[in-house]
Specification:
Layout lengths: L15 H52 L6 E2 L13 E2 L5 E2 L4 H4 L10 E5 L3 H8 L5 E5 L12 E6 L5 E5 L4 H10 L15 E7 L30 E7 L6 E6 L6 H10 L1
Parallel strand pairs: 1-5
Antiparallel strand pairs: 2-3, 4-7, 5-6, 8-9, 9-10
Helix pairs in contact: 1-5
């Protein structure tokens, strides 16, 4: 047999030193990659949510183009009484009771933004502005079956009427102001933006019982990076209604936390 220098021709596998080197390299790579996986995931979620928001705006407009009316049966974001938000809270045992994202209502996490507030349909003109465009019925949070996610609890129909409660953008909250500035950029005082006189913003959720299901879309998307079993994970449609009864129209689509598409895009690039 011809002897070779170094390792013999029939030896197999790694030496102990080679194993240590491989393990060291893997440990180094994991130390570099793993801390960034969460950042990559968040960037991906921001990209997905921005795309979904643009898609939902487009679908709503396409529905209007086809039917000369907007879809109906929106999620009201109200509780079973139709008068207050379906807000998340904690029970007596400190367990989380599912509800809207804390950034919408400020609860149950202290110090959270309060991007939305409750309001009422002010007059017959505002009501007509909505109903003439096909928006006649909202769904309040009802008694859902055990198979429904909390994000799909809105199942109790309520006919819109003058004086009935709806959700709107909160002009007293800094994040609410950012939404108003996004919708109406030509503000005299951007630090204190206002909705034009005679106009009203009505915010509703795009849930699975919306009438565009099965016609314009086959599935209503969920807002990404949220636990759908613990909070409302649907996108939000913002409509502008008018006191003079002129047709309401869609202004924008927001994330389940009230973020605008611009905010999602900015966060994507910042991350």
């Amino acid at each position: 047999m011809v002897r070779r220098s170094g390792r013999s021709w029939f030896s197999k596998g790694f030496t102990l030193i080679e194993m240590v080197i491989v393990v060291g390299v893997l440990a180094l790579l994991s130390g570099i990659v793993l801390p960034n996986l969460d950042i990559f995931k968040q960037k991906a979620n921001k990209a997905v949510s921005a795309t979904d928001m643009a898609d939902m705006s487009r679908v709503i407009q396409q529905f209007y183009a086809q039917y000369t009316a907007y879809p109906d049966r929106w999620d009201s974001l109200m509780d079973s009484t139709g008068t207050a938000f379906w807000a998340a809270s904690y029970d007596a045992n400190h367990n989380l009771v599912p509800g809207l994202d804390s950034e919408l209502t400020g609860t149950p996490i202290p110090g959270s933004p309060t991007k939305l507030k409750t309001d009422t349909i002010a007059n017959d003109g505002e009501l007509r502005s909505l109903t003439r465009m096909g928006i006649t019925t909202v769904l309040d949070a009802g008694t859902a079956s055990t198979t429904d996610l909390p994000t799909d609890y809105f199942s109790t129909p309520r006919v819109l009427a003058t004086g009935k409660t709806v959700a709107t953008v909160n002009p007293a909250d800094d994040d609410g102001k950012a939404i108003i500035n996004h919708l109406y950029p030509q503000q005299a005082d951007p630090a204190n933006p206002v909705v034009p006189a005679g106009k009203h913003l009505v915010v509703m959720g795009i849930g699975p019982r919306n009438t565009m299901m099965g016609t314009a879309v086959q599935e209503i998307p969920l807002y990404p990076n949220r636990d759908a079993t613990q909070e409302y994970c649907r996108f939000l449609a913002v409509f502008e209604a008018s006191d003079d009864g002129s047709p309401a129209h869609i202004k924008t689509v927001l994330g389940a936390d009230g973020d605008t598409i611009g905010s999602e895009t900015n966060e994507y690039y910042q991350r």
